[in-house]
Amino acid sequence: MTAEHPRTLRLLHVEDNIGDVRLVAEALKEAGWVHQIVVACDGVAALDYLHRRGRYIDASRPDLILLDLNLPKKSGLEVLAEIKSDTRLVHIPVVVFTTSSSPLDISRAYGLHASCYVTKPADLDDLFHVIAIIAKFWLNTAELPQAIGP
């Protein structure tokens, strides 16, 4: 870890495509970020993790949530709505990271208080670049709230 990367990123990656999960992890590694990634493969698992239910009873609060929209069981927009309506979770930044560039999806995500909306690049180099920018911004530039309470 360098001075430019001052702390470990605790990331909740909500994604059902294992290829995308692997690429994001590799992009963070290549960029030199020390990270802990928890993957939730559907919207229900993501909410169970955030609410520390079931097998996630000892889950730690993520610094950042990377959220796909097209998820099984519960959509990314439904997950986002629940996160932003819960006083214990509302301050966790949620980056919508999805293949959709639909103006309606973008509008809905921001209407539900997404921290930002990023369309996944199709090009591998571009994807690695975008992930590095997201991590750098949320860890080195933005001030993140600390968890309050249990």
Tell me what you see in this structure.
By secondary structure, this protein is α/β, with parallel strands linked by helices. The chain is 38% helix and 17% strand. It has 5 helices and 5 strands. The protein has a 5-stranded parallel beta sheet with strand order 2-1-3-4-5, sandwiched between helices. Helix 1 (18-30) packs across helix 5 (124-141). The protein is globular, with a radius of gyration of 14 Å. 28% of the residues are buried. The mean pLDDT is 89.
Largest sheet: 5 strands, parallel
Q: CATH homologous superfamily of the domain at 34-122?
A: Response regulator
Specify the structural class. Answer: alpha/beta
| CATH topology description of the domain at 34-122 | Rossmann fold
Report the order of strands and helices: EHEHEHEHEH
Low-pLDDT stretches: none
Number of helices: 5
Number of E-type strands: 5
Work out the radius of gyration: 14 Å
The level-1 CATH class of the domain at 34-122: Alpha Beta
CATH architecture of the domain at 34-122: 3-Layer(aba) Sandwich
Shape: globular
**Spatial sequence of strands, sheet with the most strands:** 2-1-3-4-5
Estimated share of beta-strand residues: 15-25%
Report how far the terminal alpha carbons are from each other: 28 Å
Quick recap of the structure?
The chain contains 5 helices and 5 strands. With 150 residues, the protein is of the alpha/beta class.
What topology does this entry show?
Layout: E1 9-14, H1 18-30, E2 35-40, H2 43-50, E3 64-67, H3 76-84, E4 94-98, H4 103-111, E5 116-119, H5 124-141
Parallel strand pairs: 1-2, 1-3, 3-4, 4-5
